[in-house]
Amino acid sequence: MSFPYHDPNWVTVADWMRPRARPGDRILAPDIFWWRFPKIHRYRDPFLRPQAEYDWAILHKGELDRLPQAFLARLVKTLHPVFANDVFVVLARNAKDALHRKSPHVKPLFIAVDALARRGERPPPSFADDDILPDPGSISQFTSLSDEEIASAMDAFWTHGGYEFVTERDKLYSRDVERHIAAFIGDAAQGARVLDVCCGMFRTGKFASDDIHVVGIDVSRVAIDRARAAHGGHRNVRLEAMDAHRLAFPDASFDRALLLDAAEHLRDPQRVLAEIFRVLKPGGRLLASFANRDSVNQVLTRKLGYPEFVTNYQHFREFSFTEAAGLLKDAGFATISTAGLLLYPYWGVPGIDGVVRHITDDDPEFAELMRLLGERVGAEHAYTSVFVVSRPAGG
């Protein structure tokens, strides 16, 4: 889900905090606040680091039992209430402009903390996404990280399991991606060399054969190690840890290339596309996908008057169909065909997503309908835009 812009209590606390939090401040907050701050420490963090200190704590008065009680008691003694509404109390290290502890929105916090202290500690609650976050105690937007930090974060991400396709919706998406890969590689000439850029789970590995050579590169060494374990035994598979912004291959050395579920994760997608263009032979083709900022759910979000959002903390930016086509054209590619990949009409839409998510994610009939509609609506407004482009023969 995206940030709940439909709820004034959530919006006002984030809007109040943003101009006051300084770069590097440690902010304890519910997970969903990562949409509004470069880095937040989750309510999971005090369980992992009981002595951790924070500059700010955004406390949801209805979720206090998700924090360790001894930690919570210490927190309210060392930090000061500086903002409060019906749902939240913000505590800060700076006591300037502190609110009185008996003010109407603050007093319930201290009553609840005292009541929880009398109940004593209980086992930690369950937290979603613990198994895939690079650090289960925090969420960082990749836009705030250095290249080295991103590589380290992706190593941790893959160590913790990487992308998992659990819901019916995710499974259909994964199968559709592989269908596009099969069609793209299936008509390659005998002896073709295929480059999978930002290969991650290395879905192209299963398409290597005696006639097709597949090379996979990724910034994460852990992802490469996992791919080697799965496909490294094939004589026509080669895997290397490598930055896609600087491909260590000679000019015109591949017949086909893929950039799937990756462009939105790149600091400089234009440079990566230029590198792919360079290593493709004249007449070579690229299969690329782009997270679509003009997908139906984003259009609906904007129509409701809410800010546009990226769908993943790992995304630097997302692309409209026109923007993606422009990036490919500027890199020198000529478009052969486009396609739409799934339709998620309510994904992340404030006030709607949470109500319908159990259907959109897990109902097989609805998920298949969204798959079919994604094909029909096409690359302009599907959830993901797919392009097949070529390096012109004379290029």
Describe the protein.
- With 395 residues, the chain is α/β, with parallel strands linked by helices.
- It folds into two domains: 8-140, Rossmann fold (3-Layer(aba) Sandwich); 168-390, Vaccinia Virus protein VP39 (Rossmann fold).
- Helices cover 34% and strands 18% of the residues.
- The protein is built from twelve helices and 13 strands.
- The chain has helices at residues 8-17, 45-48, 69-78, 107-119, 147-159, 168-186, 221-231, 269-279, 296-303, 321-330, 353-362, 364-377, and strands at residues 27-28, 39-41, 56-60, 80-84, 88-92, 138-140, 193-197, 213-218, 237-241, 254-259, 280-291, 334-341, 384-390.
- It has a seven-stranded mixed beta sheet with strand order 9-8-7-10-11-13-12, sandwiched between helices. Strands 1-3-5-4 form a four-stranded mixed beta sheet.
- Strand 8 (213-218), helix 7 and strand 9 form a beta-alpha-beta unit.
- Helix 3 (69-78) packs antiparallel against helix 4 and helix 6 packs across helix 12 (364-377).
- The radius of gyration is 24 Å and the shape is elongated.
- The model has no long low-confidence stretch (mean pLDDT 95).
